[in-house]
Amino acid sequence: MKPSRSCDKCYRIKARCDYVQGSSECERCARLGHACKVERAVLHPGRPRTAVKSQSTVSPKQKHASPATLANRSQARLQSEGHLLPVWGAFGQNELPLLEFALHPDQIGNWLYGPTFTNTMRTDLTTHIWGNSEELKDAFLAFASVFLVSKHADSAEALSRQHVQRGSRAVQRLANLSTVTIDSARTALTLALLLSTYNDLVTGAPAFALSRSALLRAMPYRKQLILPTTEGTNPHIICILFMEATECLVIGQVPLFRHQPLQGNTLVDKYYGISHELLPFLYDICVLYSSIKAGSISWLSRTLEFERITKLVDPWSPELAIEARDGVIKNSDEKHHFLLQAKVFKSAVQLLLLHTQRNPEAIALARARAVQVHSEFLDLMQHAVDRPNYALFPYFVACLELVDPDDELASIVLDTMNKSSAGLAPASCQSMLQCLKHIWKRRRQRPDLAWFECVDEAVAMGP
Fold it and tell me: What is the largest CA-CA distance in the chain?
């Protein structure tokens, strides 16, 4: 019998549900040990959102309103909600509608995978904007400008010259600033996460420039994870490496394979795609790449750093990581999924290390390791049929070593990327494919070329 309604748990994360009226529980809730209930109110037809009463109702006419009209309505709404959005003196009255546009529920829905956190994210963003440094306030204004331009083809007329100029200055200051607090660094990472998600869902490659600035802004404050010399780190590499890892850094705690934050009276499942023990090595490899590319590291230092990181990565065991998560991983199925996930990320980190040694032996080892990563990735895909696997980044790394790919293989790569991200990131998948195509082309011309030596060119090409 076809279910009349999904249970509340499956409905919240848009998962397939086999709940039937009168039955005890659906298969997913039984497997995860959730309380299977249907207590939510029946909503009007349309895109579902949580906590509907706290959101503004948007009519069809409002959805298609011009940017100027939207700005005027936003300004009126700001004036009526002044107690919720306190005015910071450095923002003029003509700039507040732009911020309200970025904080509008429809926009926040584009920054998150699903509407579950729309209302809490609006509150959190408002707190960040008015509670941190001037540079981050300017950065958010720059982000809002980019979002408005990307959403409306004719929106340039709605943005004053002052908005555009200030947005450009904000990005430059964000990238160059050297003294901030831990709180503002955490906010920069939050902005980077939001921008990366918006990049996935809407814009694609053009968001890289802003995202890399926010990530660079926060990097000096992760000293326990990175080398002391971060100033010369290639910002393009940062964006690609941390596409999957940013959320782990934003939450400011040890990320878990399965995390259940409390939303009101409900525990919400959240899954993370990388083991926190591997994050320091991604940072170190990123800095090593940049040093090699800039020619600022000797051959001996390069070899010693390669050996140091290798000695730390090779002994790392996913089984030991599971022991550190006692009580978090609930059953054998989740344990198996975590092992597959951690295994493919470890192999990807080892492959990234081999990319720093472009001699014939290392090139051969890298190609063999890429085959292993691809095989482990397919195993994870086969097992993760009813849950996100978050292994897009390891697959991207493995594809760097493909030999003589043709158009048919490129099509398969794009299709696999979309399946890995559950179809949620089509713009980023297309951007990553274009990046791969450029690197493949350069590798045919020069087989010993390291991919990070030409990543600037590839990212600059856009989708």
Answer: 70
Write the CB contacts of 9 (distance below 8 Å, at least 6 apart in sequence). 15, 28, 29, 34, 35, 36, 37
Cα-Cα end-to-end distance for the chain: 44
Q: Which two tokens stand for residue 306?
A: 């390669």
pLDDT digits (tens, 9 = 90+) for 34-85: 778 887 766 555 554 444 333 334 444 444 445 445 444 544 444 433 334 4
Question: What pLDDT, on a 0 to 100 scale, did the predictor assign at position 178?
Answer: 47
CA-atom Rg of the chain in angstroms: 23
CA–CA gap between residue 177 and residue 179 (Å, rounded):
6
- What is the domain partition of the chain in residue ranges? 1-43, 65-221, 276-463
- Rounded distance, CA 73 to CA 63, Å? 12
Taking the chain (463 residues) in runs of 10, the rounded mean pLDDT of each run is 68 75 76 77 54 39 47 44 44 69 69 51 64 62 67 54 58 52 58 56 49 56 40 47 44 40 56 56 74 82 90 83 62 76 87 87 90 91 67 84 83 87 70 83 84 69 46
Contact 320, 253 (CB under 8 A): no
Backbone angles phi, psi at 441, to 5 degrees: -65, -45
Which tokens is 428 given? 């980023």
What is the SS3 assignment for 109?
A: helix
Model-level pTM? 0.56
- For 390-407, what is each residue's pLDDT tens digit? 677 788 889 988 877 888
Closest CA to 139 of 182, 175, 112, 103: 175
Query: Residue 37 has which token pair?
Result: 């209930």
Tokens of 311: 């000695």
Q: How far, in Å, CA of 244 to CA of 388, rounded?
A: 12
Cβ atoms of residues 393 and 243 within 8 Å: yes
Neighbours of 291 (CB within 10 A): 21
Per DSSP, helices labelled H in 242-298 are: 246-250, 279-294
Tell me the one-letter amino acid at 424.
L
- Residue 265 class from Cβ within 10 Å (0-12 exposed, 13-18 middle, 19+ buried)? exposed
CATH class of 1-43: few secondary structures
